[in-house]
Design goal:
Elements (H helix, E strand, L loop, with lengths): L3 E5 L3 H13 L3 E5 L2 H11 L3 E5 L6 H10 L9 E5 L4 H9 L4 E4 L4 H12 L2 H4 L3 E4 L2 E4 L4 E4 L2 E3 L3 H11 L6 E2 H8 L8 H15 L9 E4 L3 E4 L3
Parallel strand pairs: 1-2, 1-3, 3-4, 4-5
Antiparallel strand pairs: 6-7, 7-8, 8-9, 10-12, 11-12
Helix pairs in contact: 1-5, 7-9, 8-9
Length: 228
């Protein structure tokens, strides 16, 4: 899947150069300049990376960053912070706040492109992650899941369903999408099959299956795995 980058910077000329460099590396780039647009579009399009200018008039960049940091659906999306300031205090502030990289401007677009590629295409990013949501932990590489530190027994299909939801924490996932991603090799599976496996999954991961705290039903859409 092609990576989508959200570039958040009011410097139009610089944004054009950055977009051209990133697109030349094979990425898609969406340029935005409104805090509300950033969050709204990010929740819908799920970008792979945010490039944020954090030092602008009215401190807009920091406001964008804080909106993203406080949004649970976007919490795990990598962020590179660009700054016209470049102070040690600001660098520490953003790195301690979860930024993957902090870059003081001016910077060559070539170097910036290499830093973007280092984050998006690193072996760590490509490897199957271990995801923790509350007391639920999912190890995609080992095909193992735990609740409260205790391993739970899942069928391969149940694990694939849980792992897909865990890779999209906080995002409502349509039943049709789950059907396509979890059952691509099945010709007989239908939407009711998804519902049945979710029901069985809840019996294994939820403290009270009839009142789920992890796997939530999204009315007329599908399911969402989120923090209790």
């Amino acid at each position: 899947m092609q990576h989508l980058i959200f570039l958040v910077d009011r410097d139009v000329s610089f944004s054009i150069l950055v977009a051209a460099e990133c697109e030349g590396l094979g990425y898609l780039v969406q340029t935005l300049n409104s805090p509300e647009d950033v969050v709204r579009h990010a929740e819908r399009l799920r970008p792979s990376l945010f490039l944020i200018n954090a030092h602008e008039r009215a401190n807009d960049g920091s406001r964008w960053y804080d909106l993203l940091r406080n949004n649970r659906r976007l919490l795990h999306t990598p962020r590179i912070v660009l700054s016209d300031c470049g102070s040690d205090e600001e660098c520490v502030h953003f790195l301690e706040g979860g930024a993957d990289d902090y870059i003081a401007k001016p910077i060559s677009v070539r170097e910036l492109g290499l830093r973007v590629r280092a984050i998006l295409d690193s072996p760590r990013r490509r490897s199957a992650p271990r995801v923790r949501i509350g007391s639920l932990e999912v190890d995609a590489a080992g095909m193992i899941a735990w609740v409260d530190g205790k391993p739970i027994t899942l069928t391969a299909r149940e694990f694939r369903l849980l792992e897909y939801l865990a890779r999209n924490p906080g995002r409502p996932v349509a039943r049709e999408e789950l059907l396509q991603e979890v059952y691509p090799d099945s010709t007989s599976a239908g939407l009711r099959t998804v519902d049945t496996h979710v029901c069985r999954l809840r019996e294994k991961v939820e403290p009270i299956p009839d009142h789920p705290i992890y796997i939530h039903t999204i009315h007329k859409l599908g399911y969402c795995l989120s923090l209790p």
